[in-house]
Specification:
The chain is an alpha/beta fold and 278 residues long. It has a single domain, classed as Purple Acid Phosphatase, chain A, domain 2. It has 7 helices and 12 strands. The strands form 2 sheets. A 6-stranded mixed sheet has the order 3-2-1-10-11-12. A 6-stranded mixed sheet has the order 4-5-6-7-9-8. Helix 5 runs parallel beside helix 6. The termini are far apart. It binds fe (ii) ion (2 copies). One fe (ii) ion binds next to loops.
Amino acid sequence: MRNLFHISDVHFGPPHLPEVAEGVLRFIDERRPDVVVLSGDLTQRAKPEQFREARRFVDRIPVPTLVVPGNHDVPLYRVWERVFAPFGAYREHFAAELEPVFRDDDLVIVGINTAHGWTLKDGRITLGRLEEVAELLEGLPESVFRVVVAHHHLIPPPTFGTQRVSRNAYEAIDVFSRVGVDLILSGHQHLTYIGNSEEFYPKGRPPVVILHSGTTTSNRGRGVEREKNTCNWISIGDEAMQVSHYLWHGDLGRFAEHSRHFYPRQRRTPYSLEGLAL
Ligand SMILES: [Fe+2]
Ligand SMILES: [Fe+2]
């Protein structure tokens, strides 16, 4: 059994809620996940001090972490930086690596940067990174659980706003399904939701579970999660994965389980897309 804790959109800066962040750290201390994944938007405005605060927060997590940037981690108004060094502040004050990879015998987690200087809001997965992800994951033993982390959404939220998704989302799903990705973790929408790739892009492929966390430590929750804070706990067993959404209860000063979802693990058999076209 392996456990992941998924947080997102911590937004250090004016929207950040320090008491909720302390609750996150207490939760991690009590539950001791194998890895904590933070799916982007570390800051509100990509300012050096905001990155340093995010760094201090992540450094207090006593287990391995994997972090990718979000669109708020690229300067919006500092246009010169945005064009010529969109991740200069991130690299200098938070981490040099934008697309980290965690791997051990049972688990591989691959970070993808979907925030770029020019395409800020909706995000983009580059085809080059998709090739690299395929190379990393192809040929792994079937027992290895494969996770991809990308800030922007590959499927639209069911209850709110635009139906637009990351550029190359469809191509990404094709690759992820082919190389046996079990789970995609994302944020950005400030809403919690879970779905699978075949509901949105039906093609008869092995489905990939897509899980979103709302904003874990900011006051920027949207729609039904307005002024709410959420995160996800994922337990991975040999036969099934269980996902629990957690919701912050300010009166209790802690996160509590809000809903629970079970997914059997895929049995991967080699297949071809030929003949599966609908
Ligand atoms: Fe965000
Ligand atoms: Fe975002």
